[in-house]
């Protein structure tokens, strides 16, 4: 009996050690990726993305003008489209990087033809013969950035002598965004000098002078 007890304990210990390994095998089920709704052709030269609410112009600057634009000159094209009030909108602007990314099809099932006959991954609901790049809001005179729709990334350039196309977007109810600012970013507020939350408001501050700490009261003269 004494010889068999240790072996029984070893078996029970091995069983206990086996339990955690069985738990590790059970992995939580992955949540299914929500299916994106398809773009909608509005029939007026624009396309609506129901997933973001953005309205895109079907043609880019190259298809409209057969010209490329530098960052410094791209505003000429934007202003012209807004003056025309294309499709009834006057708040056309270049997209932010996060907005331009939504045009790139990651499934590989959608392809559009550029001006050179090369296919690139955006929805063919947009007009063929366009250019596969665009200026984006993150660009500035100090930092030249262009977004490549073929590979879905932005590229910074060391000089200003860079040419590209312009693909415009509009968000209903949104005013024209300033160049270099993302439309969904809050504008920086000018901070005014204000008392901190812990300090009392000026109206509640007493005007009486405080007595210095540790001061001794002066003796009062009395008639003897």
TrEMBL record:
Transmembrane segments: none
Chain residue ranges for the region called Disordered: 1-44, 173-224
Domain Lcl C-terminal as annotated: residue spans: 45-168
Bias (Basic and acidic residues) ranges: 1-26, 179-196
The protein's name: Lcl C-terminal domain-containing protein
Species classification: unclassified sequences, metagenomes, ecological metagenomes
């Amino acid at each position: 009996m004494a010889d068999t007890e240790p072996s029984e304990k070893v078996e029970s210990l091995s069983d206990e050690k086996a339990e955690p390994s069985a738990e590790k095998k059970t992995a939580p089920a992955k949540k299914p990726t929500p299916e994106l709704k398809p773009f909608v052709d509005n029939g007026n030269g624009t396309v609506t993305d129901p997933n973001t609410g953005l309205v895109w112009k079907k043609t880019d600057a190259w298809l409209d003008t057969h010209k490329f634009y530098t960052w410094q000159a791209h505003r000429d094209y934007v202003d012209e489209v807004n003056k025309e009030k294309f499709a009834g909108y006057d708040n056309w602007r270049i997209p932010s990087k996060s907005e331009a990314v939504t045009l790139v099809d990651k499934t590989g099932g959608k392809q559009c033809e550029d001006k050179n006959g090369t296919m690139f991954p955006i929805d063919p609901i947009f007009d063929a013969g366009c250019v596969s790049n665009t200026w984006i809001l993150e660009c500035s005179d100090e930092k030249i950035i262009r977004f490549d729709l073929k590979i879905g990334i932005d590229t910074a350039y060391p000089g200003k002598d860079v040419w590209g196309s312009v693909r415009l977007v509009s968000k209903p109810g949104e005013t024209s965004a300033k160049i270099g600012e993302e439309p969904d970013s809050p504008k920086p507020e000018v901070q005014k000098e204000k008392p901190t939350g812990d300090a009392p408001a000026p109206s509640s501050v007493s005007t009486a002078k405080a007595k210095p700490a540790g001061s001794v009261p002066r003796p009062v003269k009395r008639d003897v």
